[in-house]
Design goal:
The protein is mainly α. It has a domain of 87 residues: Cytochrome Bc1 Complex, Chain D, domain 2 (Orthogonal Bundle). It is built from 9 helices and no strands. The structure holds heme C. The site of heme C has 22 residues, from helix 5, helix 7 and helix 8.
């Protein structure tokens, strides 16, 4: 009986102390058993500061600051004669000329290294859906991803700027990839897609005699 009473009192005290004060307000600071990094010296946005003369914690942007990044309106920021492929060039960043038309050809120099870089990136980002040969037979096909084949006449005659735009911004069911592929890598992939297209659709006359013999034509 005594044990029962003790347990009974204990349960009542526990219930009241855990649940009984829910919702009641107090002005005392909360009990912190592990304060960790709860309290740090810092300025909160738009708060007042004793340190700066204008007493604002938000600091104004220093004069002459240039915005960085790919997708700001380059023409609004840079003068038309400014040429730097990393900053002011809409063709390089968007695949479009000043009038918003897709550019016909790569805006950067074509080198063998660029094709190699394109092949490497293509194998990472595209093969799963479009297949190693670009015919749309990737490993995802049995699961219902009907990725386009690059070997049809429409895609052969699309501009380089258009292919670049598909990679960066996606198209239909294809995902956009500008969050993981830089403009330079994307142009390299465009170049490799062109190489794939050529691999399935080239005139024998375009080859040298030695190359034709090697291929048995
Ligand atoms: C997750 C699967 C997937 C991946 C990865 C993928 N694609 Fe696609 N892609 C598609 C699908 C699906 C379509 C068809 C889109 C549609 O018409 O709805 C397509 C269409 C295209 C088209 C044709 C657009 C048109 O005008 O019809 C191009 C070009 C293309 N992809 C290029 C690429 C390149 C280059 C890569 C790699 C950087 C890539 N894709 C990665 C699924 C993918």
């Amino acid at each position: 009986m005594r044990i029962f009473l003790i347990i009974y009192v204990f349960v009542i005290v526990a219930t009241v102390s855990i649940l009984g004060f829910r919702g009641s307000l107090t002005t005392k600071p909360p009990i912190e058993i592990f304060p960790d990094m709860d309290h740090q010296a810092k300025y909160k946005p738009q708060a007042e500061s004793d340190f700066f003369r204008d007493r604002r914690t938000d600091r104004p942007i220093p004069a002459g600051t240039v915005a960085r990044g790919n997708y700001l309106n380059q023409q609004a920021v840079f003068s038309p004669d400014f040429k730097d492929k990393r900053l002011g060039d809409t063709a390089f960043h968007q695949g479009k000329d000043g009038q918003g038309e897709f550019i016909a050809q790569l805006p950067i120099e074509v080198t063998y290294e660029l094709i190699e870089q394109g092949r490497e990136r293509y194998e990472i980002f595209c093969t799963a859906c479009h297949g190693a040969a670009g015919d749309g037979n990737g490993v995802t096909r049995p699961y219902g991803v009907l990725a386009a084949s690059f070997h049809d006449d429409r895609l052969r005659s699309e501009t380089d700027g258009y292919i670049y735009d598909v990679i960066m911004n996606g198209k239909g069911l294809m995902l956009p990839m500008r969050d993981r592929i830089s403009p330079e890598e994307s142009w390299a992939i465009v170049l490799y897609v062109r190489a794939l297209q050529l691999s399935q659709n080239a005139e024998a006359d375009a080859l040298t005699a030695a190359q034709r013999t090697e291929l048995g034509f």
